[in-house]
Structure formats: structure tokens, C-alpha cells
Amino acid sequence: MPKLPSASSRLTNDYRHHMKISIWPDMSHAPSEVLDIARWAEAAGWYGVWYADHYMPNTGSEAFEPGDIHECWAMLPAIAAVTERVRIGSLVSPTSVHHPAVLANRAATIDHLSNGRMVLGLGAGWQINEHKAYGIALEQPGARVTRFDEAIQIIKSLLSEDRTTFEGSVYSIIDAPSDPAPIQSPLPLLVGTASPRMLRITSRYADEWNTWGQPELAARNRQRFIEACNTVGREPDSMWTSVQAMVHLTHTDAETAEIVNGPMGSRSIAGNANQLVERLSAYASNGFDEFIVPDWEHGDSPEARRDSIERLHAEVITQLG
User: Fold this and answer.
1) What is the pLDDT of residues 254-296, one digit of tens each?
2) Beta-carbon neighbour count of residue 140 at 10 Å?
3) Which candidate, 229, 248, 228, places its Cα nearest to that of 238?
4) Which among 278, 251, 279, 277 has a CA at the least distance from the CA of 265?
5) Residue 93 forms beta bridges with which residues?
6) 173 near 161, Cβ under 8 Å?
7) Which stretches of the chain drop beneath a pLDDT of 50?
8) Radius of gyration in angstroms for the set of CA atoms belonging to the chain, rounded to a whole number
9) CB 229 within 8 A of CB 246
């Protein structure tokens, strides 16, 4: 079974010279569709398959709206089992919800299941309604980031050391094992964030950084990331960086304008095939290693979504340098 280069080798050879393209299936889609698109992405030569870690549709408040949401840590092993090459990972798992020892042990096992293709994506947690509904404390931002800071240190140690002892204000870990060790050394830790303190923590402990936005917004976020790396003495190019935005292959200028000026405009790119090639190339020019395509707005049925993604691949992705 072919294996991807290690995190360190990816950053030091020709593998990094061209931006990679990955897919992010929506949690509401039936598992069978997610597995189908994962197989398709691998066959098409895409780089990774990402899956979000939430329990209900986001409303931005404590309000609940019905809707199917499939659980990340049940889906990732299935995606691993039906693929052989693509990276797989959580985008991202909140440390407000998951204990660090649970995350580390899950990730190590899926790394074995996938023969070394797991990426553990982490965040501090933010979705109000799922914390409220399930009785999970959503702490104030400062306390939430402190929890994250301790959690990522524990996870990093559990995935790389024989035993871990950690005494913090949130967690107390005493001579804890995490066997077997993951196949990858290190198993990559990704953090999705744009806030200053979280960026500094990411620069200290993570292997990869992720952000949202159209090229201009992503470039500004990347500059903050670089500044954080410089603050803690980390070489920015030692970290893999990824970005996602909603991608719309449009037919008219009016359709494009409606999207980029709409409520998700700052997190969207839109245009005809040539325009999308230009927009995607801007991410690579800004130093991003990986672009992630959410499939959420590509149609109202599995067939429509597949047709849209295949068209995007044929008309845009294959034209990228």
C-alpha cells in the first residue's frame, strides 16, 4: 500500500511545490455518499478527505434546528477503510468536548487502520448549541484556550513519548501510556485558528495550520500565522498550511457577484473556470500547501453534488499548475 511522505520530508522536497487539493464532505450527507466521494477523490488524485466534528447543525446561538449530522470519529475509520492513499483527518475536533487522552488514542488507532494517513485536527471549541444541548461547558475564551493549550501538549506527548506526565490547571496526567504508538512519527497535529494566542500555541506545538477565506482574507490570516511563528521562534515553512473556501463554478458575472457579495462572500470564491484557476493559484502564490473544497453547496442530491465536483475537477483542478 503506498504511503504519503512524512511531515518532515513533505516540507523539504519537490512534493511541496504544487498546492494539493482535498475534499470536505458535509456531515449531513449519508455515510454511503461520503464513502463514495472519498473513493472518487482518491481515484482522481486528490490529496485528502476531511470531516468536521460536530453533533448538530450550527445556529449561532443556543437554538436547535433539526438536521442529520454524522459523527466524525465513527466516520473517519470508515473513510480510512475504503481508501489507500488519501490523508484523512478531523477538521477540527474541539478540546472543549473531547478529553486529550481520548483524542490521542483514537488518532493512533486510526493511523494504524489507515497505514499512516491520519491527521489529528484540533480546535478549542466554539459551537454554542451543541455545548448547551449536551451539557458540555463552553468556557469563556481565555479559559477555553488554556484548556486547549494543555490538551495539545498532552496529545503531542502521548503520540510521541512512552509515558506522559503533565500537571496543569485543567488536566493532571500521571505516567500515562499510549500504546501502540502511531505509525507516523510524528502523527501530524493540525490546528484551525486565527486568534493571536491560539496562533502562538499552534506555532509551538502543531505540525499544520488551517484557516478559512477567499485569497485576500487567507493571506492576511497567514501573515498573522507567520508573525506568531516568529514570536515563538518557529520557522513558518516547517509547518504545512491549508485553507478552505466555498467554491462556485458560475455561468455569469451576475451570479459570481451575488456569491462574493453575499453573507458567505469572505469565505467563497466564484467565477468561470479560468477565473477559478486564477483564484486558486492565488492561494498557492500566498504560500498555502493545500486547498480544501467543501462539498456543501454543490447540489441538493448526491448525483448533483457528484456532477458538480467532477465538473470542478475536469474544468478547474486539472488546469492548476
Assistant:
1) 999 999 999 888 999 999 999 999 999 999 999 999 999 999 8
2) 9
3) 229
4) 279
5) 122
6) no
7) 1-15
8) 19
9) no
C-beta contacts of 157-163 below 8 A and 24+ residues apart: 158/100, 158/101, 158/104, 158/105, 158/108, 159/104, 159/107, 159/108, 159/120, 159/186, 159/187, 159/189, 160/185, 160/186
Residue 90 φ/ψ, nearest 5 degrees: -90, 135
Question: Exposed (0-12), middle (13-18) or buried (19+): which is 244, by Cβ within 10 Å?
Answer: buried
In this prediction, residue 9 carries a pLDDT of 40
Q: Cell 512534493 identifies what position?
A: 15
Buried b (16+ CB within 10 A) or exposed e, 199-227: bbbbbbbbbbbbbbbbbebbbebbeebbe
Instruction: Say which residues have a Cβ less than 8 Å from residue 49's Cβ, sequence separation at least 6.
Output: 22, 23, 24, 25, 37, 38, 41, 42, 79, 83, 86, 87, 88
Residue 17: per-residue pLDDT: 58
Q: Domains of the chain: which residue ranges?
A: 7-319
**H/E element, 61:** none
> Got the DSSP string for 84-119?
SSSEEEES-EETTTS-HHHHHHHHHHHHHHTTS-EE
Closest by CA position to 176, among listed 250, 100, 80: 100
Helices (H), the chain: 7-10, 31-43, 72-81, 100-113, 128-134, 141-158, 196-205, 215-232, 253-260, 273-285, 302-315
For the domain with range 7-319, which CATH number is right: 3.30.1360.120, 3.20.20.30, 3.30.230.10, 1.20.120.450? 3.20.20.30
